[in-house]
Amino acid sequence: MEISKCLIIGAGPAGYTAAIYASRANLSPILFEGTQPGGQLTITTDIENFPGHPDGITGPALMADIRKQALRFGADIKSGTVTAVDFSKRPFEVTVNGADTYYAHTVIIATGASARYLGLADEQKYMGLGVSACATCDGFFYRKRTVAVVGGGDSACEEALYLSNIAKKVYLIVRKPALRASKVMQERVLNKENIEVLFNCNTVGLFGEEVVEGAKLVENKGTANERILDIAIDGFFLAIGHNPNTEVFKDYITLDKDGYIVLQGNTSATNVEGVFAAGDVADPRYRQAISAAGMGCRAALDAEAYLRDNDL
Length: 312
Ligand code: NDP
Prior knowledge:
Blueprint (H helix, E strand, L loop, with lengths): L2 E7 L3 H12 L5 E3 L13 E2 L9 E2 H14 L3 E3 L3 E5 L5 E5 L3 E10 L3 E3 L5 H5 L5 E2 L2 H4 L7 E5 L3 H11 L4 E5 L9 H8 L4 E4 L2 E7 L6 E6 L7 E6 L2 E4 L3 E3 L30 E3 L11 H21 L3
The chain binds NADPH dihydro-nicotinamide-adenine-dinucleotide phosphate.
């Protein structure tokens, strides 16, 4: 039976950075990339706040660079999705694609988070027919059309701005009376002439013959001024945050009420000794590429110390 010293699950900034550090520490890590190699950054546009890139860099280019850096030091990067784990056994058992079993003395979970949906039946009905959670993937199809983005955070503002350069008009549907995004993003959105922000609005449904042709909103819900509002749109983009990808680990790993992995003190350790976590999967607060990368570094250093302390 072949046992890896370090098995990394996830291919975003956290996973790849963990792979760089683990390779350089001679742990010969295996990393499984899952269904979205490069993670969420591969579906964003320009990254302007990753140190070392004064002129900005695209998400895919940044991830390709970090991946290349991990390969340079010998990380074994494999495609494949981890479908089950058994953290009650030593070494740990990890099943990939429901078929292949791998064994490891340490595991670093860096599976990130996935886009959240409102939970409307219409989102399923029109999935791929006007509903999307990725403006940079699908924005191209809405050239000179009208689209809506839901959300009031940095992601929603970023998506709205991106789409405003492609579409004729962009509605930003915000459930509260204010945006939550950083000041600079708020200003950009509010100053963009073809973005209209609809504050105090909740989406209750979508309509259209075969594809999305409009959205039904409720404005000022529960107040004397409540009214129903139909807007004509061709595309409906979700940008209301993310859910951590922890389903596979929930039988073993302690999660918080929102499903994020709970870390022990100021470390990357989970409740299971030898299992560490890094990046958005364990970070409901900062969720930045650079903080995820930092967490990946810490997880690899913690894994290395654990192996040393346990003579593994
Ligand atoms: P956030 O959690 O910051 O924002 C989510 C937004 O969606 C909020 O406005 C929230 O409304 C709204 N929302 C949530 N659920 C619903 C719902 N059911 N119906 C309607 N609206 C809903 O998520 P983001 O993805 O925007 O950002 C995550 C993190 O990543 C943040 O820390 C952000 O700063 C960061 N980020 C940074 C970027 C940058 O620096 N360039 C770019 C993108 C993200 P409400 O305000 O009412 O809660």
